[in-house]
Amino acid sequence: MPEIDNRAIVAKRTIYGYDMDKPDLFISLMEEFSHAIFLLCRRITSRQPYS
User: Fold this and answer.
1) Among 27, 39, 34, which residue's Cα sits nearest to residue 1?
2) Which of 16, 17, 26, 32 has the highest count of CB atoms within 10 angstroms of its CB?
3) Other beta carbons less than 10 A from residue 18's beta carbon
4) How many Cα atoms sit within 13 Å of 47 on the Cβ side?
């Protein structure tokens, strides 16, 4: 995974202030997962622009 993605995730964790004891940890993890999928899809579409 590129360094940019790691920095973005760390910054996002810092903003949201993750708390491992909260019951919504699963939701936070799902947000991270969906964010990673979004970045991956955007990278693929930018490499293959619509014609």
Assistant:
1) 39
2) 32
3) 13
4) 6
Instruction: Tell me how crowded residue 33 is: count the other CB atoms within 10 A of its CB.
Output: 10
* Residue ranges in 17-51 assigned as alpha helix (H): 25-47
Parent domain of 8 = 2-47
Give me the number of domains the chain comprises.
1
- 4-25 residue pLDDT tens: 566 666 656 655 555 555 557 7
Cα 46–Cα 32–Cα 26 angle in degrees, nearest 5: 155
Contacts of 28 (CB under 8 A, 6+ apart): 16, 18, 22
Q: Using CA atoms, how far apart are residues 25 and 42, in angstroms rounded to an integer? A: 26
